[in-house]
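Dear colleague,

Thank you for sharing your sequence with our group. We've completed the structure prediction you requested, and as agreed, I am returning the results in plain text so they can be pasted directly into your records. Please verify that the sequence below matches your submission; if there's any discrepancy, let me know and we will rerun it promptly.
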Amino acid sequence: MPIQFQHEAHQKIYEKVAQLAREIWGEMARFRDDAPAFLLDMGSAFVRVAVFPWGDDDAFVNARSWVICGAEIKPDLMHFLLRKNDDFRFGAFGLDSDNDIFFEHSIVGSTCDKLELKACVMAVLTTADRFDDEIQQRWGGTRAVDRTK
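Please find the predicted structure tokens below.
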């Protein structure tokens, strides 16, 4: 199924982001055929970069890495994640509807440039790669690299 866009700006911003991604990461960026998104991996982490519509005439770029799935969600883990969020310049940890731990950052699509896209994606990717082992050792769960084997 071809990629579906909500409006013209959504499509144009995705095309701009896709071109920037090709310039920055080349063939390492793996583009989806069915969604305005691409994947990158580094070490034991991967990031999904997706372009979502925002209103009727803009879009935003979201870089999300699932850090750990299936960890035991305890108060000390939540405290750890929230305290770490205070240290980050870009992005934050969160929990999805399955209680899987992710790290993500979003930027405005219409004003996104090459430097901002690279900073956003690399902040998410390096943070996920940095913390997945520590979180797994302390609270269990499965790292991204282990889910894809």
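Summary note from our side: The CA atoms of residues 58 and 106 lie 13 Å apart.

Kind regards,
the structure core
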